[in-house]
Amino acid sequence: MDITAITYVAGIVDYCALALVALWGAFCVVMVWRRVGRVRFRSERDQDAFLNQLDELISQGAMDQARAMCEGDPRALPQLVLLALNNLDLGYSRLRALLVDRFQRDVLADFEYRLSWIATVIKAAPMLGLFGTVVGMMGAFSKLAVQRNVEPNLLANDISLALITTAIGLAIAIPLVLATASINVRIRKLEDLVSFGLNRFLETLRQAAREPAWQR
Predict the structure, then answer these.
(1) pLDDT tens string 13-58
(2) pLDDT tens across 190-212, in order?
(3) How far is residue 119's CA from residue 188's CA, in Å, rounded to a whole number?
(4) 3-state DSSP: the chain helix, strand, coil percent, rounded to 5?
(5) Are 158 and 140 in contact (CB under 8 A)?
(6) Are 25 and 125 in contact (CB under 8 A)?
(7) What global pTM score does this model have?
(8) Alpha-carbon distances, residue 80 vs 37, 52, 89 (angstroms)
């Protein structure tokens, strides 16, 4: 049974699927990369400058000015500081738990969701390439089964489909693996910066506050 028409259509569908997967993977990488860049300080020096200004305002009791400094700033630490300044009545322990929970839910969970799509593409691309390999080999063997003297160029078309789709699948997955590793490094740096910043901010609040609730 000659299944040339079927393998041809399946090959076109596989190429289209690989193209869509590659575009979606690249889109997700760009979105996560930009998202991490929006919520973190460019360097520890920039964050220290922000915290120094914040410490001065808190020490002076200028909470409204501290809130104004954080409002409109999309970065994670200023938004967490703003949340803390709006919930000072919770006390140190509960406020710290609130900030950690919000950082996990609003920032890190969003990254995990986006990275899960990239991981899906990394797994799907080689499988689509393998599908193309199977389709190409099926087409080649069907020609050998049906025809006694098979033109080499006819077999070459099916074999090229098998090899090209495999190569494309790997070419999609490998850069995404490297990109994911780089993004994870940026996220870990973000976690370290935010953790350090929150600890310093909360310590400043403890020193500035005199209510018994803040001494727990």
Answers:
(1) 999 999 999 999 999 999 999 999 999 998 889 999 999 999 998 8
(2) 999 999 999 999 888 888 765 44
(3) 18
(4) 90, 0, 10
(5) yes
(6) yes
(7) 0.80
(8) 17, 16, 15
